[in-house]
Design a protein that fits this description.
Layout (H helix, E strand, L loop, with lengths): L1 E6 L28 H7 L11 E5 L3 H10 L6 E5 L5 H15 L4 E6 L3 E2 L2 H15 L4 E6 L10 E8 L2 E11 L4 H10 L2 E11 H11 L1 H12 L2 E3 L2 E3 L2 H5 L6 H6 L5 E6 L3 E2 L4 H6 L9 E3 L2 E4 L5 E4 L4 E4 L4 E5 L4 E5 L6 H10 L10 E4 L2 E9 L2 E8 L7 E3 L3 E9 L2 E5 L2 E5 L4 E4 L5 E5 L5 E9 L8 E4 L6
Parallel strand pairs: 1-2, 1-4, 2-3, 3-11, 6-12, 14-16, 15-17, 16-18
Antiparallel strand pairs: 4-9, 5-13, 6-9, 7-8, 7-9, 8-12, 10-11, 18-19, 20-21, 21-22, 22-29, 23-30, 24-27, 24-29, 25-26, 25-28
Helix pairs in contact: 3-6, 3-7, 6-7
Length: 471
């Protein structure tokens, strides 16, 4: 049986301002109505011998992943929650431990959640070839046939052919991201392939090779798995054990050292969507080479990527630009500078701003809230609570709240008092009072919340009861 391992812990900072810490690129619908995470799962539909997926994600994204799995009707075998990011080698080790408990001969198909694959039938054929090699105890990676001298990818040099298969090779060596001249020579030789970060191998073989080459990672991952707790589909790794684990990729920890590395070469319309320019390359283009999404007016504009998320954007007389508008930030840059977006994110971090962390609309397991206005000692939010959902029973030390019901039916707990409120009704939550909001209707509940007080940060929440087991 093949066990898909979906690695969805990335941050996607080069796609800011759309991708943010609370909503990274894998959970965004960048090219279709489905997110990259959902597309990764959907392209495995109807593939033979495929088990339910093992999803590895940051604990803060667990409800995002769960909702997106539910939306496409793909129940996971397990959601493995990382308390901190430790790269791919430990994450896959945990997935291997989980798969082995189900199946001693489990074969893992390791896939990043944020890649694009346009030729799905060719991808399925490549999986079959890789599984055949994995059954021979090979650790198989997918090498992407390059079509340009890209300097943003690592490369793999092919070795001898395997199994008389024109696409299966041993691995001669892995190469770091090259300079332009070296990348050009790689392309001309025909012997080098982009390193995709996708793998197929037996769980047992990966773990044995990890134990040989990085016993420290193996032991830390094993302890974290052994000390994990489980509720619903969630596997919560032990935070202290996992935080103590070295942060390392599969390539560095295992693939560059093992004697069992193999490669299946593929031409599958692959992109890692690693920047705005790479997203532009795989987007639908108009006659002047523009990729446009949202409410956009253009004139005398060419070869540009323009995305409007919350308002109308007018673009006149430009070329080779990336323009991305969100409710609280706008990015304008030349396409050639796409790799430098991270510098803007670093500036926001150093300035202790929040535009790299959250959007104006912040999603929660019960629904979402979005900021409307903020000033000295006050803040206004629009809140949506899903039918049947409720917020935690909580209290604030520094702020009072006024709630105005816009539509729907709300059950309000305030101290010992419980009441039902409907459209155009309101209530007041004093500082220090325990309270809870619940949607008891069949439709989404919309509410305006006005906060006032000396401190309005999201960390001023003391939870007494919570259906979602947040601290």
């Amino acid at each position: 049986m093949i066990y898909p391992v979906i690695l969805s812990g990335g941050s996607g900072t080069r796609l800011w301002p759309l991708s943010r810490a609370s909503l990274p690129k894998q959970f965004l619908p960048l090219l279709s109505e489905h997110t990259l995470f959902q597309e990764t799962l959907l392209r495995l539909a109807n593939f033979h011998d495929m088990a339910a997926p093992l999803v590895v994600c940051n604990t803060h994204h667990r409800f995002l992943a769960a909702e997106q799995l539910l939306a496409i009707n793909v129940p996971p075998m397990m959601q493995i929650l990382e308390p901190v990011g430790r790269n791919t080698a430990p994450a896959v080790a945990i997935a291997a431990f989980a798969a082995q408990e189900k199946d001693a001969e489990a074969i893992l198909l390791v896939l990043p959640a944020d890649h694009l694959i346009q030729n799905v039938p060719a991808f399925h054929r490549a999986i079959d070839s890789a599984v055949e090699l994995a059954q021979q105890d090979k650790l198989v990676t997918f090498g992407i046939t390059p079509d340009a001298p890209a300097t943003g990818f690592g490369y793999i040099e092919r070795g001898a052919a395997l199994n008389n298969d024109q696409s299966a090779f041993s691995v001669a060596r892995f190469v770091e991201k090259p300079d332009a001249a070296t990348a050009q020579s790689f392309l001309a030789s025909g012997n080098f392939f982009w390193n995709s970060g996708m793998f197929v191998f037996k769980a047992s073989v990966y773990l044995s090779e990890l134990l040989i080459h990085r016993p420290d990672i193996y032991q830390a991952a094993l302890l974290s798995w052994q000390h994990s707790t489980h509720d619903l589909d969630f596997c919560r790794l032990d935070e202290a054990d996992f935080a103590a684990c070295p942060s390392e990729s599969i390539d560095y920890a295992v693939m560059e050292h093992t004697q069992h590395a193999a490669m299946v070469t593929v031409d599958i319309g692959w992109s890692d969507i690693g920047s705005w320019s790479s997203l532009a390359e795989v987007s639908a283009l108009d006659a002047k080479g523009n990729a446009v999404r949202g409410d956009v007016y253009m004139a005398e504009t060419s070869n540009s990527y323009i995305r409007a998320e919350s308002r109308m954007v007018a673009v006149i007389g430009v070329e080779d630009l990336v323009i991305v508008e969100t409710a609280d930030a706008v990015l304008v840059m030349h396409k050639d500078m796409a790799q430098d977006v991270k510098a803007a994110v670093d500036f926001l971090k150093q300035a202790e701003r929040t535009e790299h962390l959250i959007h104006r609309r912040a999603y929660r397991p019960w629904g979402y809230y979005e900021g409307i206005d903020i000033g000295e000692r006050f803040q206004v939010k629009r809140i949506m609570v899903k039918p049947g959902a409720k917020l935690s029973l909580q209290m604030h030390y520094h702020r009072a709240e006024h709630w105005i019901i816009v539509s729907g039916t709300a059950k309000i707990t305030c101290g010992d008092k419980i009441e039902l409120l409907h459209e155009n009704q309101s209530t007041y939550i004093p500082i220090g009072q325990t309270h809870r909001l619940e949607n008891v209707g069949r439709l989404p509940l919309f509410m305006i919340e006005v906060q006032s007080g000396s401190y309005l940060g999201e960390d001023d929440i003391v939870r007494f009861e919570d259906d979602y087991k947040r601290s």
